[in-house]
Amino acid sequence: AEARAAVRAAHEAGAAWGRLPAKERSVRLRRWYELMVENKEELARIITAENGKPLKEAQGEIMYSASFLEWFAEEARRIYGDVIPASAKDRRVLVLKQPVGVAAIITPWNFPSAMITRKVGAALAAGCTVVVKPAEDTPLSALALGELANQAGIPAGVYNVVPCSRQQTAAVGEVLCTDPLVSKISFTGSTATGKILLKHAAGTVKRVSMELGGHAPFIVFDSANVDRAVAGALASKYRNSGQTCVCTNRFLVQKGIHDEFVEKFAKAIEKELHVGNGFDAKTTQGPLINEKAVEKVEKHIKDAVSQGASIVTGGKRHSLGKNFFEPTLLSNVTTKMLCTQEETFGPLAPVIKFDSEAEAVAIANAANVGLAGYFYSQDPAQIWRVAEQLEVGMVGVNEGIISSVECPFGGVKESGLGREGSKYGIDEYLEIKYVCLGGL
Known about the structure:
Layout: H1 2-19, H2 22-38, H3 40-51, H4 55-75, E1 82-84, E2 92-99, E3 102-106, H5 114-126, E4 129-133, H6 139-151, E5 159-161, H7 169-178, E6 182-188, H8 191-202, E7 207-211, E8 216-220, H9 226-238, E9 248-254, H10 258-272, H11 291-306, E10 310-313, E11 328-331, E12 348-354, H12 357-364, E13 369-370, E14 372-376, H13 380-389, E15 394-397, E16 412-413, E17 416-417, E18 430-437
Parallel strand pairs: 3-4, 3-6, 4-5, 6-7, 8-9, 8-14, 9-12, 11-12, 14-15
Antiparallel strand pairs: 1-2, 2-18, 7-17, 10-11, 13-16
């Protein structure tokens, strides 16, 4: 009932918000951004308290999160239409872009602030209103953003939050996907949940954006700078304890540099990563989100070892507590092991040795998802070939961290539909209307 009430509130606020001049929407989004920056320390502490990520990472997320409000505040004033040359001299042909209406925003726990602003910034800039359903693990970040939205002058009903328990999640999600007053669904989460939401949305043919699961390959070719590859691997794999959709899930290392890479990667893990309380300044690895997440990591390690994989470092729960897990590196991994077939979403790095470029690309593309992919090479021809052949929506070449507000975020295959951020992100919340003026 509360979810439906939030949808009605968003619908009733929509007409006035959509009619505001773009500059007005821009000013308010900009003020919201400024308030986030002013309150960044408190907002970061909320994230660390909610999901355990190290405070430094949480501070980084808040600045990344705020940047989407800044970006889309600027994009609000650049929603351009077209004038098309008409085929008849007594006609003029126009194309307008208009807000789709109420957007339901369903977000995950791993980036409880950034996953909201990346969607909501675009939606509000386009003139849409939103109903946000945050993950049941992390509702406070969404509510904190709502408080700052009020302070920024975002009118009542434009930004609505519906927190709910795990038991109510499916029911609330179904309401948001089936209510006829909702015109658009934007979801970030697992592929399995995304498919359920797509089925619900089909009943009323809603617009959908889906940013779903990943299974990112990280390929290191013989020509790579190994030290740079190790630094990129560390950043890509262990950020947020491996709990991001663009984290590397499979390392593919060419035989010529395989042993050197594994040795240096293990040393870097042992030297640079520190498991601990997220509020401790030296912590780089916080807890996993819950017991179920830890059990999945354990399952993947047990399966791999039973099939011949070797634990190079880590491999078990940390003494700090049941949700803390040691950063783990496996070698002698094959494509038959669970950890190379499923997304682990934890601090586990499995390394597969390969012979040729063609073999690496084939292994990388064997997944039914394609969000991010990474590779290290200093061969210009190889860089072009592999970047074009990888079946993913985003490619990092000699770079392990690729997310940026200016760049389109999204995947191919079963990793989703649509793009977020960048100049393309606002189009997800706009309808194209063709107007033909006759009798001229």
